[in-house]
Amino acid sequence: MKYWFIIHSLPAYQAHPDYIGKEKRMAGKITKVKPGDRIVYYAMRDSVVVGTFQVVGKQEEWPDDTAWKGPHICMKIRKRYLAASRYFLPVQELVKLVKRPISIFPKRKFIPIRFKDRTSVRITPVDFRNIEKVLRAYKLPIKQLFKGPTNDENLGEPMDLGVLNYAPTSEQGVVALFAHFMGKLKTHKFVKIEFIRQGFPDACAIEKQGKTFSRKYIEFEYNARKFREHVKNPKHQQICCDYLVCWNNDYPTCPVEVIELQREIPMDGGLGR
Predict the structure, then answer these.
(1) Distance between CA atoms of 238 and 217, rounded to whole angstroms?
(2) Would you call 188 helix, strand, or coil by DSSP?
(3) DSSP state, 223?
(4) Cβ neighbourhood burial of 182 (10 Å; 0-12, 13-18, 19+)
(5) Is the CB of residue 126 less than 8 Å from the CB of residue 133?
(6) Lateral strand order in the sheet of 257-260
(7) Please, where are the H alpha helices in 146-201?
């Protein structure tokens, strides 16, 4: 019987909690894992240990799978101890909590490069037993997370903006106001947002112009002067951007038309009503 860290991922575990596997072309040492071996299931991207398992099946070759694309070398596993929390056990915590240092981390410090481009890493029987002891005892203090005092700082001027009770202080607030008022602006009428994304420009919206409709590309900023970063970017200079939507227009020489929301939102005695 041998003992291993198996390097995998949470999506792989969620798709097949009773199997371990690796692309055939990258199977590496996983092919040395045999029925009866014990494993510590490590989800690398999330840096958590899912639990410990026993290998109960021989190697199988899967030609393809909806979750695991391409040919895989797979083995059936049976759970022994799972981390008690739905957040699983952070590997950094495990390395600190074991009774004796894990052989591959002798200074009780997790070193990610030990698992880089690996499918499995051999550990000692003592390592495995100590890891299981930690798994059985570990409880993440979930009730203590995000239960502290509220943070009500960095609010704008109190203002009835319909969807907001305060003037925006960030780009996110500008996006929220635009989405709420886009069909009621004084100089422009937008009927649909096609997309909002990370990237330049931020969004595409359909604008009504008379009896016709046009796609318009929009960049959002709180202060218009922030748009200067795009003006200086040679790649962005070559990309279509029709409007800069902001709360405060402090960039009078902006090379694209500026829609300043604090002037464009209809003022009817109670903003947003």
Answers:
(1) 13
(2) coil
(3) B
(4) buried
(5) no
(6) 190-196, 203-209, 212-220, 243-246, 257-260
(7) 171-181
Q: Which residues contact 111 (CB under 8 A, 6 or more apart)?
A: 105
Write the pLDDT tens digit of every residue in 142-194: 666 777 888 989 999 998 888 999 999 999 999 999 999 999 999 999 999 99
What is the Cα–Cα distance from 129 to 225, expressed in whole angstroms? Answer: 60
Omega before 201 within 30 of 0, i.e. cis: yes
Is there a contact between 219 and 241 (Cβ–Cβ < 8 Å)? yes
The Cα 189–Cα 191 span in angstroms is 7
Q: What is the pLDDT of residues 29-40, one digit of tens each?
A: 678 899 999 999
The answer to whether residues 10 and 43 touch, using CB atoms and an 8 Å cutoff, is yes
CA–CA separation, 134 vs 185, rounded Å? 60
Cβ partners under 8 Å of residue 194, min gap 6: 203, 204, 205, 206, 215
Which of 17, 39, 21 lies closest to 31 in space, CA to CA?
Answer: 21
d(CA 66, CA 135): 31
What are φ and ψ of residue 193, in 5° steps? -95, 120
Which tens digits make up the pLDDT trace of 52-101? 999 999 988 888 776 777 788 889 999 999 987 677 899 999 999 998 99
Mean pLDDT of 18-35: 83
Residue 256 token pair = 């694209």
